[in-house]
Design goal:
It contains 11 helices and 7 strands. It has 332 residues and is of the alpha+beta class.
């Protein structure tokens, strides 16, 4: 252990959990406590006690770390412990005992983003807001890291790459594999390839310009590994513009829909009005006429049927007042 590590461990002693506490919280890493298995860590849920207070937590149990990863483990704990942001889970503590390396995070009630990626009710506007929140968190992390310049630069590159990964998962509506991202890295300038990965139910909602801006910023986060990597100010600016265009588009669609419904109502009212008027005219035509013979003395007044052919009789209908008709049209 280096002097720097021992110094950090002393500073972070209040966050340390003993291995026996983790084992109790996870029932010895029981399967029913397992949330998911990952390439670098397995994730468990558990209930830890600190200062007589029970805390629902998520525990990241890392696979054996390489020497460079070991070197940065305590630096990462130190960094994460200083970050408190509305769009991220907070660090509760860590465990560094024997060969075990674990990070303990607060349990987020609504779950993580990957639980909602395939949800068709999560609209494109909502997804853009999620991406904007993630970008704000990234901006906050970058400002607050407070570690050495070299380490901070490494983390900024890693974080913005992860941000691009998240953006493409949001766009595709599913979790991406390493193979998926490899293809993205080689085809980010192929418009057709990128369009093919968009979830069909999202494509119907998207404004063309909003989508174009989003794909551009996501592609640059993922592929520009050197001098051209997007800075956080540009990421925020572009995402805000994409969201504004999408919201304007949706407002226009809603306004058009209201106008369309109103015109349908007007058309129905007009049709019923004409039907009522036609029925009234028909009744006048079918009404008997009263005529008087020229010789009033010898021929009494008689009632004669009209000479034109009799229209077929229609079944009598109950009278419907105009107000009831209007209400029926407006509500049905």
């Amino acid at each position: 252990m280096s002097f720097e590590d021992s110094d950090l461990e002393a500073k972070l002693a209040h966050l340390r959990f003993q291995l026996k506490d983790i084992l109790i919280a996870t029932n010895d890493f029981a399967e029913e406590k397992l949330i998911k298995r990952g390439g670098s860590a397995d994730v468990y849920q558990g209930l830890l006690v600190r200062s007589n207070v029970s805390i629902n937590v998520v525990i990241w149990r890392f696979h054996p770390l390489s020497p460079p990863q070991e070197e940065f483990f305590m630096l990462e704990i130190h960094r994460l412990s200083r970050l408190q942001h509305i769009n991220t889970a907070s660090v509760v503590g860590f465990c560094k005992e024997d060969r075990e390396r674990m990070v303990v995070m607060e349990h987020v009630v609504n779950g993580s983003l990957d639980q909602y990626l395939e949800d068709p009710t999560l609209t494109w506007s909502q997804r853009l807001r999620i991406c904007l929140g993630a970008a704000h968190a990234y901006d906050y992390f970058t400002e607050s890291a407070g570690i050495s310049d070299q380490y901070g630069y490494i983390r900024r590159k890693d974080d913005v790459y992860s941000l691009g990964w998240i953006f493409f998962e949001v766009l595709s509506g599913r979790k991406l594999t390493n193979n998926d991202v490899y293809h993205l890295l080689t085809k980010t300038h192929d418009r057709e390839q990128l369009d093919d990965m968009i979830a069909p139910y999202l494509r119907k909602q998207m404004h063309t310009d909003s989508l174009s801006i989003f794909k551009k910023i996501a592609g640059k986060c993922l592929t520009d590994l050197g001098k051209s990597r997007e800075n956080r100010e540009e990421i925020l600016r572009e995402l805000k513009e994409a969201l504004a265009l999408q919201q304007k588009h949706e407002n226009h669609v809603r306004t058009f829909s209201v106008k369309k419904i109103f015109m349908i109502y007007i058309a129905r009212i007009t049709l019923i009005s004409r039907t009522i008027k036609t029925n009234m005219n028909t009744k006048k035509i079918n009404s008997p006429t009263v005529t008087q013979n020229q010789n009033t003395d010898s021929h009494p007044i008689t009632t004669q049927k009209p000479k034109h052919p009799q229209l077929p009789k229609k079944k009598k209908k109950k009278k419907t007042c105009a107000a009831r008709v209007l209400l029926f049209v407006l509500f049905f």
